[in-house]
Design brief:
The protein has helices at residues 3-18, 22-30, 33-42, 48-70, 75-95, 100-119, 140-158, 170-178, 183-207, 212-231, 245-250, and strands spanning 238-242, 257-261. By secondary structure, it is mainly alpha-helical. Mean pLDDT is 81; it is low at 123-138 and 236-262.
Length: 267
């Protein structure tokens, strides 16, 4: 991992650490900045394996959330479990050729299924208290040094993954530490945003045979379009005119009511 990549990962994690909105944290993390730098510095082409790498990113956060929040593992041990799941998935993906179109269809289908399950997930009580629930007492300069050192170490591991290095959770390992008290909510928001990462990889894939700059521009454009679609308010203001049945039956419409309903915005 180059020094520029380490600095970029450090900047992403630092930005997540100072934000308070979980939704904004997940959006900042989902920006394909590490992916862009990995594509530029490693020269690995985008293929079907990288699309499945986005699935691996979601499995990473799911593993960390379950082991830390439910099994009450310390966050660093939960991080290691998440990395192990990603590495195991990468080994299986790299062992066989994965056609891009098949991977794209499968990834989008999995995303749609995940959104349906999350939408209909019943409300649950507060999760068990994690093992390391004490407040974070690190001063800001000390935290920055820790983030920088962690980014360097995760970069060394990511260099062993060949093409899957593009989607390796460089900053995710440290973002999970920063967002450990909000991991379930963070994971849900990231799962939704991950479709935009699939769009980024798809746009890059279909133009990577020409100019690298053009391929990256196509990837970022696809990311922006899908991300905007995911975050725009759903539905417009609806106008509903209610005519009481008793008035309709008698031909009187003097008591008609106009009901304006504001659109529901997802949290």
């Amino acid at each position: 991992m180059t020094w520029s990549a380490v600095l970029l990962v450090t900047a992403v994690v630092w930005a997540v650490s100072v934000l308070r909105s979980v939704r904004l944290r997940a959006f900042v993390y989902s920006l394909p900045l590490p992916m862009t730098l990995a594509l530029v510095t490693t020269g690995h082409p985008v293929a079907g394996a990288q699309l499945l790498g986005v699935v691996g990113l979601n499995l990473f956060f799911l593993t960390v959330a379950v082991t830390h929040r439910r099994l009450r593992w310390p966050i660093l041990l939960a991080d290691l479990a998440g990395v192990a799941v990603y590495v195991a998935l990468s080994a299986g993906v790299l062992a066989v050729p994965v056609p891009f179109e098949a991977a794209l269809a499968g990834t989008v289908a999995l995303w749609a299924l995940a959104m349906v399950l999350l939408r209909h997930r019943p409300a649950t009580g507060p999760p068990p208290q994690p093992a390391d629930a004490r407040p974070d007492g690190l001063a800001a300069p000390v935290k920055l040094v820790v983030i920088f050192a962690g980014a360097l170490l995760t970069g060394l591991l990511g260099g062993l993954l060949r093409g899957m290095v593009v989607t390796f959770p460089y900053s995710g390992v440290l973002v999970a530490v920063e967002a450990r008290r909000q991991l379930p909510e963070f994971s849900r928001h990231f799962a939704r945003n991950s479709l935009a990462l699939v769009a980024f990889l798809t746009g890059h894939h279909y133009l990577q045979g020409g100019s690298p700059a053009l391929a990256l521009a196509a990837g970022w454009a696809a990311f922006a379009v899908v991300s905007a679609a995911l975050h725009l308010p759903r539905g417009g203001a609806s106008l509903r005119i209610e005519w009481p049945m008793s008035r309709l039956a008698s031909g009187r419409v003097g008591d008609s009511r106009v009901s304006l309903r504001k659109p529901q915005r997802e949290g």
